[in-house]
Amino acid sequence: MEVAGGYTARPQDRRLRFATLSHRDFRLFWAGLVVSAIGSQFTSVAMAWQIYEITGSALQLGLIGLARAVPTIALLLFGGMLADAVNRRHLMMVAEIGQLCVAAALATCSLLGLVSPALLYAVSASSALFSALEGPARTAMIPNLVPREQLTNALAMNASVRYLATVVGPLLAGLVIAGTGAAFCYLVEAGTRLVGVITLALMRPVAQVVGGRKAMSLTSLREGLEFVWTHPVMLWLMALDLIQNFFGSARNLAPVYAKDILFVGPEGLGVLYSATAIGALGMAFIVGTLGRLQRAGRWVLISVGLYGLFTAVFAISESFWLSWLTLAAAGAANTVSNVTRATINQLITPDEVRGRVTGVNSMFTTTGPPLSQFSAGAFATLFGTPTGPLAGALVVVGAAAGMAAAVRSVRGFEISQSADVQESGRSSIQS
């Protein structure tokens, strides 16, 4: 049976636990992202540890996130238009090379003893710039690599990239920092970015609707914004994701908890960072096996509420293993909401506007984590620990409960609706 993207759905594919890995180009795509993401975790952990060790300030730790958020917000819409205008694979390769150069420069400065808070903020902003250009292209390319019925599986595998990296990367980075210092962490990322470039280069040309200069116009941007605006379910889910990321930010204070509350040092910091990813990775494999979740809107609301509850327990915990378990549970809940939201958005959106819509969506989702790092530091500075992170987690619970009670279109959304919605969306764009 022929499906979107020119692939033939084979009966045995449905029986494969990770059916998307049966496609060569998706395997290369996924493997390259895993390696690059592991390298980026080395840098994230090293930067967080260095800035807190230099300054001892939770606010300065949070400013690393703000430094990432500013260029991300400024460039995501541009990155979304670029993902519709040019070859997405080539755009990703350019972004990977840029990240490689940033990591190499930071490693050099560390070896020369030139690291300062200002330098770390500048590096964080530079890295975010390339991520903002690459992110929409990466997400928008996935539906071009797999059959339509395997999209949820592919998105779960894509989500597992970050989680797998956050299991392996921080654990190893904590040991590297304790043993040799931060500079080697930055060298590791430079090497993994090179691997990412090579895997992308080995992929075959990907079928894509390329808009060229037309996709870089204000009219093109307006089309992407209008598409999102005319699909309220997408808007509500984006807003909920932003609230979850911005207020459910206790994990970003892991260096504070590791050093001053749980007293476990950099080795324990790596274990704490990996907890969320271990829970998320396990759940990503489960979701990828199950395929599409019916009653998708309800599952998003439930999982966001649970994420807030687990984060609240972590905020007040003084036990290392309770803290680890609650972070793992929060990661599992977050995976359900992330994959389900992504499936809804990708099935609703036609390929010709997928990059721009992904860019708009990323304004809510991608900026949330760096902003949450800033908000975590700011709340902890203003209200103390654990009061600040606890209050933020309870806001997340309240937002999920409020949306469940007040927004019927989200609460009752079924995954089967998305096919009809996509057809109507495509018709409106063509008209």
Characterization of the model:
Helix content is 79%, strand content 0%. It has helices at residues 11-15, 24-55, 58-85, 88-111, 117-141, 151-180, 183-202, 218-229, 232-247, 254-261, 265-290, 296-316, 320-348, 354-365, 368-383, 387-406, 408-411, 417-430. Helix 3 runs antiparallel to helix 14 (354-365), helix 3 runs antiparallel to helix 15 (368-383) and helix 9 crosses helix 15 (368-383). The two termini are 30 Å apart.
Sum this structure up briefly.
This protein is mostly helical and 431 residues long. It is 79% helix and 0% strand.
Largest sheet: none
Number of helices: 18
What is the radius of gyration computed over CA atoms, rounded to a whole number of angstroms? 21 Å
| Global geometry | globular
Helices and strands, in order, run as HHHHHHHHHHHHHHHHHH
According to DSSP, the number of beta strands is 0
Q: Strand pairing plus helix content: what structural class?
A: mainly alpha
Oligomer: single chain
Instruction: Report the helical percentage.
Output: over 70%
Please mark out the parts with pLDDT under 50 across 5 or more consecutive residues, or reply none: 1-16, 418-431
Distance between the termini: 30 Å
Instruction: Estimate what percentage of residues fall within beta strands.
Output: under 5%
Average pLDDT, to the nearest integer? 78
